[in-house]
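task queued by scheduler; priority normal; single chain, no ligands, no partner chains; default sampling; output format set to structure tokens
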Amino acid sequence: MVFWFPLLSWLAAIVAAILVLLRGPRPITFGAVVDQLLRYILLFPVGVMGLWAFLGHVFFAEQAAASIGWAPSPFQFEVGMANLGIGLAGVIGAFLRSPGFRAAVGVVAFGFLGGAGVGHLVQIAEAGNMAAGNAGPILYTDFINPLAVFGLLLLQRLTRRAPAA
């Protein structure tokens, strides 16, 4: 499950956005697509994934460490608490439509998750650590999640500034 959860969170985000768009007003605009993708990426890949990582590192530390290819460490509690903050912020950002708040979620996620992604790359290069929790989908989503938030916020801003045709 550790291996698949990041992919499932993205699948949930895309399916939820599509369902909301299909049930919403017509025509479906580019801006509406961006809004819904941003909402559900904040909710699932950022929010739910953050809460899932919190639970893993805090309550299932041995299993979480093993999935990454590491020994359990007291630092996992701190990592778990950082994930709790990111997860809660992602969930709040999904429903609070403040671009500033959402950008702050992206910044914090980029700082922590991007740093974790770099750490995974270092472990692969230096220790050959190809464990699923180090070199699997989590490696990619550590970079993709915050970049998707930033990219969608930028598109949202550009879409709202575009002059009406």
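post-processing summary
- Residues 117 and 142 are 5 Å apart (CA to CA).
- The helical segments are 5-23, 30-59, 61-68, 75-95, 99-127, 132-135, 137-161.
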